[in-house]
């Protein structure tokens, strides 16, 4: 194992069938074809081989989840509404617990732990650390238990899960690096804004996987 690798972990965010064009997902994000997922798989294998512990997030909703437009009479897909003062995008039903397309497409043998999120019907949860109601997932504890102080984040979607996870990690005191070329976003404008916001928060953005830069960030 590489000497400097001990304190850095990797979070692979929501690389699940429903978010991909490859699997004809219900919330397929542009550019998430088979080649993209294979690129993420290869990069994750490389980082694992280099000794970095790999963690994953998995969007894991009950069928009656608040984020599904089908659970709001008259609601439309991608409509933005307010719920108790919170902004909520109404999504097509996706990542329903136990369905095939809720499965993670990266080889699960690479993961030390998978953190599921969005399990509470009442709250959405883009972040791997906590939901919109402030309820924490196990992520922070798991990372701490493994001595992780710096994290590398990539996956789907740049403008939702990747952004929220990276920002929450920063707030929780981790140093964070995002690999842009291993992410895809729901929309170009919000993805550009997300990258800008992350940079402004002090998050390092790499275009592509660069082991030297990951060793020293
Ligand atoms: C996500 C949309 C809906 C994400 C989750 O984790 O990026 N996006 N649910
Ligand atoms: Zn979701």
A few lines on this structure:
Helices cover 26% and strands 21% of the residues. It is built from five helices and eight strands, in the order βαββββαβαβαβα. The mean pLDDT is 96.
Features of this protein?
217 residues; alpha/beta; Rossmann fold; two-stranded antiparallel sheet; binds pyrazine-2-carboxylic acid; binds zinc ion
Classified in CATH, the superfamily is Isochorismatase-like
N-to-C CA distance = 18 Å
- Low-confidence spans: none
Helical amount among residues, as a percent range? 25-40%
In total, the number of strands is: 8
Strand arrangement, largest sheet?
Answer: 5-2-1-6-7-8
Order of helices and strands: EHEEEEHEHEHEH
Mean pLDDT over the residues: 96
Largest sheet: 6 strands, parallel
Q: How many domain regions?
A: 1
Q: Give a list of the ligands.
A: pyrazine-2-carboxylic acid, zinc ion
How much beta, percentage-wise? Answer: 15-25%
CATH class: Alpha Beta
